[in-house]
Every structure is written in structure tokens, then in C-alpha cells.
Amino acid sequence: MVPVVRWRRATLVNCMRQNSTAEKPNGCPPKEAEKRQQDEQKLINNAKPLTEAEQEEKAQLLTQGVTDWSKREFQAFVRGNEKYGRNDYENIAKEMDRPVSEIQNYAKIFWKRFNELQDSEKILSQIEKGEARIQRRHAVKKALDAKIAKYKAPFHQLRISYGTNKGKTYTEEEDRFLVCETHRLGFDKENVYEEVRQSVRNAPQFRFDWFLKSRTAVELQRRCNTLITLIEKEMGDLSDVKPSNNGADKKRAGDKSKDTPKSTPAKKTRAK
Question: Which GO terms describe its molecular function (predicted)?
């Protein structure tokens, strides 16, 4: 049997013979793209028509493959896997405007014959990086949800365990607002820090806080990333603590957390 790759190249050559010029591929470095273009051009220049046996095999292979998907749709499928994860067929289907059942069938074939792809390692790396970002978002959301849930009024009560990383630029009141507002809006929402910036400008408690009101969305994002890292560490440390059997944990559960103040908010101070 003629290998699938050989048939694909032969088909490509026959399809492009009329144009006589190979296209430069997208999505790769200029030198690599130029080399691939030259290789395809050599195939075109030395092209020979498929034999009768190869034509028959081509027809047979077409019955076994997915013939109504273009290269653009293949690339959209890969991007969907990167964005939503390889098992989120529903969102991939919405992204591509295709039935979920069709995405499932295509995915089954895609992963079964994945190693036959020319850039299989690059595609897999692309998808795995996307899935790592998804896992990261889930971990951040879990930590933020747990932190906010500790307080009845987080915008007034939330405390951050700074350790030695408090810094001298932002006050605790500012940090508290940034964390709570980012959580309220959705930290992984597109342009969320532009919305946080607008919320800061509209918040009456920061009416005369020119420092915070003059921060850009990028600066607010950078500060929120620092605060989220501190919260992740704090919540991770708490989850690692094993409850004892002497009733002390039960007693502590009934007490108010040291992290929750009784009434007065923290004083707003900024180091000079």
C-alpha cells in the first residue's frame, strides 16, 4: 500500500501543478517556511501523474478519511484543543460551528493517527501548553474562591498574608479592593483589568487616591498577579494542615479567624 504521506504529497503536487508555484506555509519561522516552500516546489517541478493503481488507492483512502474538513478547519480544531482542552468537545464544537458528535468522531481519528502528522510534536506541544494554562486558571479560581468564602464582607474584611513581600507601594485597602473586584469580575475574563481600572476610578473610597487611580491596566494586572500568588500560597498551606483529633480544631472552627477583623478596616498608609 502507498503510504498516506506519499499519497498526500502526490495529491498536493497534482493539485498545484497548474499553478506551478508552491505557497509559503504560515505559522513557522521564515527560514523554515522558505525551506518548506522550496521542497514543495521541487516536488511540483518533478511531479509525475498518479498511476492507475494509485488513483484507485486514493479513491479508497478518501472513503476512510474526513473529506469535508479543510486545512483551515483542521487548524481551528487544533486551536480549540489548545484553548479548551482536548476533551471539551462542546466548546470546540461551538468555536467551529460544528455538531458535537462530529467533533468527537474527528477527535477520535485525530488522536489515533496523530503520529502521522508532519508537525505532530509541535502540535502536541501547542495543545499541552494550552491545557497547562487551563489547569493554572482552575487552580487560581479555586484559591480565590476559597479565600473570598472565608469572609462575610470580603471588601471590608479580607486580609492578605504578605509575609515578607508586602512592599511599600500599595496599601492593604487598595490590595483588598483589587483582589475582591478581580474575583467579582472574573479574573480570567478578557480585558478584566481594564474593568478593574474603571472600577477603581468609580469607587468613592478612592476618590482622592491619585496613585491608584493613575495605575494602568498592565500595572494593576501585575499587582493582582502578585496578590494571587500570595493567596495561592496561603490557601495551599492551609489545605496541607491536617486536623488533629483532640477537639482543638473543632474549637478553632467556632472561633472567628484571626484573618477576620471585628469592625474597623486597616489603616491606609503608604511608605514615602
Answer: ATP hydrolysis activity; ATP-dependent chromatin remodeler activity; DNA binding; histone binding; nucleosome binding
Total count of domains within the chain: 3
> Which triple of cell numbers denotes residue 252?
478553632
Residue type, 46: N
Rounded Cα–Cα distance for residues 68 and 237 (Å):
52
Reduced to 3 states (helix: H, G, I; strand: E, B; else coil), residue 226 is: helix
CATH of the domain at 96: 1.10.10.60
Amino acid at site 135 = Q
Tell me, what's the pLDDT at 254? 47
Are residues 250 and 161 part of one domain? yes
Q: How many CA atoms lie within 13 A of 150 on its CB side?
A: 24
Cα–Cα distance, 23 to 7 (Å, whole number): 19
pLDDT tier for residue 59 given thresholds of 50, 70 and 90: confident
Asked, for residue 260, whether it belongs to a domain, the answer is: no
Q: And the C-alpha cell for 30?
A: 521564515
